[in-house]
Structures are given as structure tokens and as C-alpha cells.
Amino acid sequence: MTDSDKSSFVSNGKHTIVRAFLFVVFALPVGDAVAGLCDPGPDLMLDSAPTTFATVGDCGSTGKQSVFLGSEKDYEFSIAGGSGINGLAISGEQNGFIVTVQVLELVGGTIGDLQAELTFGPGGISGFFDVLAGHSYILHVIGAGFGNYDIALTAVPLPTAAWLFGSVVLALAIIGRRRRPGLAAARA
Q1: Angle at Cα 148 formed by Cα 144 and Cα 150, nearest 5°?
Q2: Does residue 85 sit in the same domain as residue 143?
Q3: pLDDT digits over 133-143, tens only?
Q4: Theoretical Cys-Cys bridge with 58: which of 53, 139, 140, 151, CB 3.0 to 4.6 Å?
Q5: Full residue range of the structural domain in which residue 87 is found
Q6: Over the stretch 144-168, which tens digit does the pLDDT of each residue have?
Q7: Which long-range contacts (C-beta less than 8 Å, at least 24 apart) are formed by 60-64?
């Protein structure tokens, strides 16, 4: 094997590892609730209070709701303590001449704790909210126009995935910068 072959192999090997890692991270399901909103799992039904997200992967939907001119609908729920849930993926559909704002409020929190997602016109609704286990929340869906929406919230453990992804990127950066003694001696 020549020096250029070795260099090419090392470079291709790094790219293969990165591609494999990205496939694993982004191909894993994180609770895509769009398909049947909460299918195939059970739907916690955000309309029925009290609703509690107890485990990662739990899904709760609003059901199809109508919007006329200006309207607001509130959905109360809590995240079970010790559940490992650190985020809620929001997904769904809206139809008609409509604009919706999805605002997540931490019960007992301040205005700085509010999180919002905005969706214009017909199509898909998507976004992400950070949450804390052991706390209660209210999802305010504020609509303007004429149409309907159907929204699902799916519990996900984002920080764990973020730490894993960050540590792998850091490791690859360190490996990429380190000079290999065998290759340096072969070049000399």
C-alpha cells in the first residue's frame, strides 16, 4: 500500500464513520407524531385533564380543532418526575386560511419561561419545546383566520442525544487534528 493509498484510506475511513454516526443519530425515531398523530401508540388526549407524560415516547394530541377569526384553546399537562423527559416535539397539520401560535407556559413560571412556535397557512406544524420533569405546563394554541389544526406533543430526551452528538463531534475533531507518528515518518 503506498503512502497516498494510506492517506486516502484514513480519509475515507473518517468519512465513513461520520456518515454511519449521522445515519444512526438522525434515523432513530424521536416520536414523530405526524403519521397518525399518536399512532401506533396510545394517545394521551390533551383535552382530557389531567394529562401526564410519564415516559419518553408518550404522545398526546389535541384532536381536530376549528379556528374562526381569533380563538385560543388551552391544554394542561404535566411531566412526571424522574421520567427522563427533557423535551416535547410538536408536530401536526393545519388547513385553511389560518395562522397559529403554539405557546408553552410553565405553570408558576415567569414570562422568561414562555416558549413559542409560529405556523403560517396550511401545512405541517413542527417545533420543539424544552421541559423539566416534575413540572406542569399549559399549551396555549392561539389561532387567527378560518380553518382547523390537529397538534401532537411527543416526549423526547433531547439533552442526552445532544451530549452524545457533541462528544462524538469533539472526539472526531481531536482525532482529525492529531498527527499520526506512522504517517509522519513515512512522509519524511
Answers
A1: 115
A2: yes
A3: 999 999 999 99
A4: 53
A5: 33-156
A6: 999 999 999 999 985 555 666 777 7
A7: 60/152, 60/153, 61/33, 61/37, 61/92, 61/150, 61/151, 61/152, 61/153, 62/92, 62/141, 62/149, 62/150, 62/151, 62/152, 63/150, 64/148, 64/149, 64/150
